[in-house]
Amino acid sequence: MNHTHPFQSIYRHGFARLAVAIPAVRIAEPAFNAERTIALARRAAAAGAVLVLFPELGISAYSNDDLFQQTALLDAVEQAVAEIAAASSELNALLLIGAPLRHEGRLFNCAIALCNGHIVGVTPKSYLPNYREFYEKRHFAAARDAINDTIRIAGQTVPFGADLIYEAPAIPGLAVHVEICEDLWTPLPPSTFAALAGATVLCNLSASNITIGKADYRRALCMGQSARTIAAYLYSAAGLGESTTDLAWDGHALICENGDLLAESQRFCDEEQIIVADVDLERLQQDRMRQTSFSDSIGDYRERLRAMRTIALPLTAPIVTDLRRDVARFPYVPNDPATRDERCYEAYNIQVHGLIQRMRSAKVEKVVIGVSGGLDSTQALIVAARAMDRLGLPRRNVLAYTMPGFATSSQTRTNAHALMAALGVSAHEIDIRPSALQMLRDLGHPAGEGAPVYDVTFENVQAGERTSHLFRLANYHNAIVVGTGDLSELALGWCTYGVGDQMAHYNVNASVPKTLIQHLIRYVIRSGELGEEANRVLADILATEISPELVPATANSDDKPAQRTEEIIGPYALQDFNLYYITRYGFRPSKVAFLAMHAWGDTSAGAWPEGLPAADRRAYDLPTILHWLRVFLYRFFQISQFKRSAMPNGPKVGSGGALSPRGDWRAPSDASAAVWLAEIDRLIAEVDVG
Ligand SMILES: Nc1ncnc2c1ncn2[C@@H]1O[C@H](COP(=O)(O)OP(=O)(O)OC[C@H]2O[C@@H]([n+]3cccc(C(=O)O)c3)[C@H](O)[C@@H]2O)[C@@H](O)[C@H]1O
Ligand SMILES: Nc1ncnc2c1ncn2[C@@H]1O[C@H](COP(=O)(O)OP(=O)(O)OP(=O)(O)O)[C@@H](O)[C@H]1O
Ligand SMILES: NC(=O)CC[C@H](N)C(=O)O
């Protein structure tokens, strides 16, 4: 983290801007190639990139064949390298260029690292392809055949080897390794070892000719290598100008990060190209830290890793504020409809599968569920009905109860009945007001005598009476209670502990975030599996405002809920965003705010998940983002862990994480939120002043 940078700067938040360039080349014309390399390097550095990767043998061109053995060409290459090195003195960037270099009486296919006017290191190719269309062993020696670990070039002696890692002390987390094309095609690429030794940015200078289907293969290799090494993987394949005597070239550039594709060039392009992405170095370090098997692999290769050499670069972190990276507004809900449907299919089936297994092992054929007419109990009811279908049991074995209280609106009550009828479950209604009043009177609470005192006790008495009824109904009917509370509510502690909706025998929604629930219901509607009437009710439920309906509406409020959940705990859209980045990656609050600002600050651009109501498609300014993030931090870290520590069983649905103490999230119930609140309060003070 660069503490001295303003909040808006990407380098303050652990990002680094990296670029891959595909210049035009001329075969055996190093002077021209150097000029194009310098031009693109200047453009990339002017855009804030601190690293610019170029293709394999780009200074000579890759497709020189036996021209590589001509002294005039090799002299011209060295001259060009010296020129590019000199030009790098005015750029705040590490340049990685490809060239054939003479060394120890042989020729090596090299990646040359240039920074601040100097050649800082040279990496020879480890694996020379010599099969099918490739003849590299005819011209080059491999890294392992070098005698010395330094090379003399352009009057300098510099480190030489496949074991070099470049670090920039001013950009924490930036540690760069370089390999060359075929190196990635091998079972154990050099970059794998570099990653274990700490390299976070793995670069590949390539001259991969194109054939049908090969682009997909390269993409899979790069994305796979970035995932396996928990690193960024940058790839630059030669294009425009390479010889088409027998082959063709597509100029394929890629930037991947831990399995995600961040940027890709346009292939077969007639123009030179630069692709740029802001790589999240902190995310990579966070994931390596939590994936402890990564560390086990380090132990296996300790001797080899210890021998790797580190070279410090005099780079500075530039101030860059236009984040070049997609930040999804809904981290739990993909925008792409096909991907979203796939996720919904998985989530829904995981929920159904979880409940089926629990019913089998508990030897019960019935479930009890409270149906409010809200989103969560609707989804849980659909899952319960589906579980009965799969078990070959009648849907009437779902014992569904709607239990109106003091604040139940006619809309949710009507929807609850219509839904139970449409699904063909056993539908019942229990008025909880008499038992709730009894309890309020027993407590000596004024509401027991009709006084309008609507405090937390008043709310929890109703939630408690419902839960108490459901558990005793389960005893009576030899059934289990299906829980309905979702992940977002658990994160915020927005549920009534113990004898309340926090408890169930099995909670199918426990790891489903609120922002996903509505899409699960939409997915079920689209599938048509529940019929037209059910679909009509489901559509109405989707359109109902979220409320716990525990506080009565006033006389003139038109039967609308007095308690609007999102006015109290914040918009679920923002709280799910906060939840994801804080629990999945452990980011500090200011970084979450920075990401939220990019995702939610300007909503005129970027995609929305289809079907999302217009009212939910709104922007949030930075003060609003910070306000609700602070609410999240206080509720999540300070007051609600005890509710999660005692949460019932339920299946983990998403890779984003669950909050079960037996799963993704173990935390003490008596921790303090002080460090998180202090961090965000410093930021609030800072942006106010700014
Ligand atoms: N660390 C800790 N370890 C053990 N116990 C701890 C504790 N911190 C507080 N407590 C105790 O826990 C109690 C507070 O927890 P709790 O009884 O749950 O009550 P509380 O969290 O204060 O209230 C529940 C809230 O959830 C809302 N709610 C309820 C039901 C459904 C929904 C919905 O929309 O889905 C929302 C409701 O509107 C209300 O604001 C207090 O008695 C407190 O002393
Ligand atoms: N009127 C009601 N009838 C039956 N059960 C209810 C009723 N109100 C709440 N519940 C039960 O308590 C759970 C929590 O209720 P609440 O409405 O406060 O929050 P919610 O998380 O928004 O749930 P939902 O979306 O299902 O309404 C519900 O899922 C449901 O199981
Ligand atoms: N230049 C290279 O090393 C090319 C080899 C690589 N296997 C490819 O086909 O793209």
Descriptive key words:
single chain; 690 residues; alpha/beta; Nitrilase/N-carbamoyl-D-aminoacid amidohydrolase; Rossmann fold; 2 domains; seven-stranded mixed sheet; six-stranded mixed sheet; 39% helix; elongated; binds nicotinic acid adenine dinucleotide; binds adenosine-5'-triphosphate; binds glutamine
Structure overview:
Helix 11 (433-443) packs across helix 12. The protein starts with 14 loop residues before the first strand and ends with a helix. The chain is elongated and about 100 Å long. Helices cover 39% and strands 16% of the residues. The strands form four sheets. It has a seven-stranded mixed beta sheet, with helices on one face. Strands 5-4-3-2-1-14 form a six-stranded mixed beta sheet. It has a five-stranded parallel beta sheet with strand order 18-17-16-19-20, sandwiched between helices. It has two domains: 13-312, Carbon-nitrogen hydrolase (Nitrilase/N-carbamoyl-D-aminoacid amidohydrolase), CATH 3.60.110.10; 337-689, 3-Layer(aba) Sandwich (Rossmann fold). By secondary structure, the chain is of the alpha/beta class. The protein binds nicotinic acid adenine dinucleotide, adenosine-5'-triphosphate and glutamine. The site of adenosine-5'-triphosphate has 21 residues, from helix 9 and strand 17.
Set down the secondary structure blueprint.
Blueprint (H helix, E strand, L loop, with lengths): L14 E8 L7 H17 L4 E3 L17 H17 L6 E10 L2 E10 L2 E7 L25 E4 L2 E4 L4 E4 L7 E6 L9 H7 L4 E6 L7 H15 L3 E6 L15 E5 L2 E5 L8 E8 H10 L1 H9 L1 H5 L2 E4 L24 H26 L3 E5 L4 H17 L6 E5 L7 H14 L2 E4 L3 H11 L12 H22 L1 E5 L3 H6 L13 E2 L6 H14 L4 H11 L22 H5 L2 H14 L3 H12 L21 H18 L1 H5 L28 H16 L1
Parallel strand pairs: 1-2, 2-3, 8-15, 9-10, 10-11, 16-17, 16-19, 17-18, 19-20
Antiparallel strand pairs: 1-14, 3-4, 4-5, 6-7, 8-9, 11-12, 12-13
Helix pairs in contact: 1-2, 8-9, 8-14, 9-10, 9-14, 10-15, 11-12, 14-15, 17-18, 17-19, 18-19, 19-21
The structure holds nicotinic acid adenine dinucleotide, adenosine-5'-triphosphate and glutamine.
